[in-house]
Amino acid sequence: MGLGFIGQEIARAALRSEEVELIGATDFSPSLTGKKISEVLGVPAGTFKVSKDLASAVGKRRGVVLLHATGSKLPQVMDQLLEAIKLGLCVVSTCEELAFPYFRHPALADQLDAAAKKAQVTVLGTGVNPGFVLDRLVATAAQVCGPVHHVKVTRVVDARTRREALQRKVGAGLTEDEFFKLVDAEQLGHVGLAESAALCALGVGIDCDDFEEEIVPVLAEEDIPGGAFLVKAGRVAGIFQSAVGLADGQEKVRLELTIAVGAEDAADTITIDAEPKVTLVIPGGVAGDRATANVLVNAAPRVKSAEPGLLTVLELPAGR
Fold first, then answer.
1. Are residues 107 and 173 in the same domain?
2. Cα separations (Å) of 61 from 31, 33, 305?
3. Rounded to 5 degrees, what are φ and ψ at 219?
4. Which tens digit of pLDDT belongs to each residue from 261-302?
């Protein structure tokens, strides 16, 4: 469900998978409804067409997992998730707030969990972040540690390597005033960083009682070419966003995300202060779009065999 850029990447990943069979697709856009999926994806993908609704896409098939990619905020996609559950579908979604919905939307989380258990299906929100680099990978690395005192994770992404829509989403090309107006309107920035911080804390055994978030612009010191458009000196090149988990006023978890046109030293770096201390560095970082698609497809068989209800990625098997 959802054939935007990420949805199409998910569909292509499903076609490459040896564990998953792509049997249908649905999108709300009239320009896509009725088109052959192979025409939409630009690769051979069977003969079925994009359906106008979920029920038509599924038909009478059983044991179906919905790969869901329509929105970042849980209230906006809640009806879609409940419809899938009512149809008896397990769900794996890119919705960032669904990765740990108890953080912002505990009542909706409880509603989803109860509905999924009643229907005997499983619901999961996942992706690269939240869902892997900033939380699940940290929790996996911490398995070798004694008590964890502090975790810091930094993710630096050169937005020139990503699609234009993402460059726009992080404010590239804006003035500072325009940037902060969109931040105040919750129309700019990465959704799910605080959810990652909460998941990270849970995964390493730290009980945080408060979380703080901050987002500020990264400004271009000179003209930056090479992206979808030229970012002029003095304009916003991207974002620096942080989420901090606190326990009794003491910082215990710090996640820092930089996504900017021209960002240097792109990498994912995890530092776990424990005995032994663990530091992991992924030079260049985990590529977001293709990796997100693979995460969803690889999770589908695991979700199908999991216990019914609303899960987090911490409850998935570590292996594929």
1. no
2. 26, 20, 17
3. -100, 145
4. 999 999 999 999 999 999 999 999 998 789 999 999 999 999
Which residue has 């916003």 as its token pair?
236
Pairing of strands 267-273, 150-158: antiparallel
Residues 23 and 123 in one domain: yes
Mean pLDDT across the chain, nearest whole number? 95
Q: In angstroms, rounded to a whole number, what is the distance separating the alpha carbons of residues 293 and 302?
A: 15
Taking the C-alpha atoms of residue 111 and residue 104, their distance in angstroms, rounded to an integer, is 14
- Is residue 154 domain-shared with residue 243, that is, in the same domain? yes
Percent helix, strand, coil in the chain (nearest 5)? 35, 25, 40
The percent of residues in the chain predicted with pLDDT above 90, rounded, is 92
Burial 151-175 (b: 16+ CB within 10 A, else e): bbbbbbbbbbbbeeebbebbbbbbe
Q: Do residues 172 and 235 both lie within one domain? A: yes
Same domain, 263 and 311: no
Which SS3 state, helix, strand or coil, does residue 42 take? coil
**Which candidate, 289, 257, 258, places its Cα nearest to that of 161?**
289
Task: Read off the CATH number of the domain in which 302 is found.
Answer: 3.40.50.720
- The answer to whether residues 95 and 196 belong to one domain is no
Residue span of the structural domain in which 118 resides: 5-127+290-315
Split into its structural domains, the chain has a count of: 2
Report the run of H or E that residue 9 belongs to, with start and end: helix 5-16
Residue 320 lies in a domain: no
Q: What is the dihedral of CA 145, 149, 154, 155, to 10 degrees?
A: 50
Q: What is the length of the chain?
A: 320
